[in-house]
Amino acid sequence: MKKTFLSLLLLAGAMVAAAGPVYQSETYYKVNDLFYRIISDSTVETAPMQDCIPYEGNVVVPSTVTINGQTYTVTRIGDETFAGTCQAVSLSLPSTLLEVGKEAFSQFPIPVRLPESVRRIEWGAFVGITVDELYIPANVEFIDEDAFFSAATYRIVVNPANTHFVAVDSVALCSADTSVLYLYASRNPARHYTVPSQVRRLVESSFYGSNNLDSVYLPEGLREINCIFGTRLQGLHIPASVCRIGGSLLENPPASFDLTVDPANRNYKVEDNMLLSFDGDTLLMVLGAEGDFIVPQGVKVLGDYLFYYNDRVDRVVVPDGATTIGIQTFCGSSANVVLPPTIHTIDNHAFWINTGTRRVSLPNLTTLGRGAFQESAVATVDSLNSLREIPPYAFYYSALFSLKWGDQVESIGEYAFFYTKLSAGKKEMPASLRRMGMDAFLTNNGFTRIVFRGPIDTIGQNAFQCRILQFTDTTVPVVYGSNTLSNTDTVYTPCGFAEIFEQAIPHGSNVAFAEWCSPESVAEASPTDGVTLYPNPATRQFSIAGLPTGGADAEVSDCSGRIVMRRTLADSHPVVDIAALPAGIYFVTLRTPQSTATRRLVVK
């Protein structure tokens, strides 16, 4: 279920505005006030107005456009083309259209009549629209289950020639065999509705916003319920045939809500004003919850949307043994949630905008969903020792101040800690960290110092702001975006690698690269500490001074780490022939039974 679908879209728009253009590596062409992207040798799709400026006025999408002297056919309304802030007063679409992309007409202010040529309608294409009549053309063969999420309409019409979809009684959009109900016409004034007897699955968008209905009668034979019902619903009977319920069936259900389950159903039960799985393992719905709520012992999974925007519950105590917090379980809730150490999964947006939970300890957490603590009040996260991946938007704009993680985290997704209070002072990254996404730590404050303790290989665009950056491993990361280091004063690199890092990392003109040698490497005198190479730079050969008696084994490697030469040096002052090496920067590693030393060599 996507109960906060519209809020998510609006938030995504705000993120795009803060982070820059949506398409940073694409080429877009403006032709007669519309933007296009080339998608094949002969076709283009429309694109959103660049720089967050909305389309407005009388919008005409042509059947063909000419770009750089070549004519292309317009076959697709691209993702988000007219989404959100579009101010069109009229719209004309060509008969060449084959597809409507993701969120293409989200929140579109006027009715859209699709041409008969359209074959695909993708995710969120018409989310949140309000129309008198929703029309499905003859050639449409695919409609994403959430294409019309929260769409409000009086009636639904499907071209009789369409063999994939049908409008039942002009109020229900269904698959041709009527096994799937995609959308009920929520503006229809009827107070009662009986779901067609052939329906086997209710999808997420089926009844969202159907606030005129007092009752919905579900048929025996129905297998899945994945939807949210409207706020006027007085009760609901779950047939014996239902084997899957996707989450809470109603937002903040009152104690008076008449919820029953057929006694023959062996998958679900109602007990003590709670909807539970038959074995008591999963809690799906609580009727009239308020004050302190103690989740029953034996519950392992708190289902999706369980306390969604619930402001009547002050505190929720989750029992020891519970393992999973579902999608948006505490989204928008004001409850202080007490989690046990047994939790290993927190799903997408589970604590999004939760205002009551300020501290969690999650020593066994292995799966964290996208935006799990986004914009939440959580300030302290203890013992995040088992998590390998921190997903995108995990703590985006949250109150997070203190985070204790172990050396298990390998990846930090884009915007994961964007504008959190973590971004101050010195921060040591886990030694296990390999990837950091775009804007992962970006904030107005920035770190004083970031230390990468392990061989990180990828740093996303605008991943952080810091005055001092320190690398301890000799692996040179791939850094995306020329301004990633634009706010950095000094980058400290391992001894002998400053020039390599400076050449490999895009940075602002104010950045200085300096050598850094760990205290461990000089704590004790080593037999090879006094080794020097000369002349350096060298041309055809170089000498080594300071080798201990007995000589050493030598390896010469290039900047990529590839070994280009091996030698066994028998005396303490050898001369090495490098006439076969092309000009460049190399690293000479000298090994004795007691120690190892690496020196940089420049070959002219």
What does this structure look like?
By secondary structure, the chain is mainly β. Among the domains are: 128 residues, Leucine-rich repeat, LRR (right-handed beta-alpha superhelix) (Alpha-Beta Horseshoe), CATH 3.80.10; 77 residues, Immunoglobulin-like. Helix content is 4%, strand content 35%. The protein is built from 3 helices and 52 strands. The strands form 13 sheets. Strands 1, 2, 3, 5, 6, 8, 9 and 11 form an 8-stranded mixed β-sheet that branches. Strands 23-24-25-27-29-31-33 form a 7-stranded mixed β-sheet, with no helix packed on it. The radius of gyration is 31 Å and the shape is globular. The N terminus is likely disordered.
CATH topology of the domain at 1-128, what is it called?
Leucine-rich repeat, LRR (right-handed beta-alpha superhelix)
Rg (CA only): 31 Å
Average pLDDT reading = 88
What general form does the structure show?
globular
Reported CATH architecture of the domain at 1-128: Alpha-Beta Horseshoe
Beta-strand percentage range? 25-35%
Largest sheet: 8 strands, mixed
Q: Give the proportion of residues in helices.
A: under 10%
What is the straight-line distance between the termini?
A: 64 Å
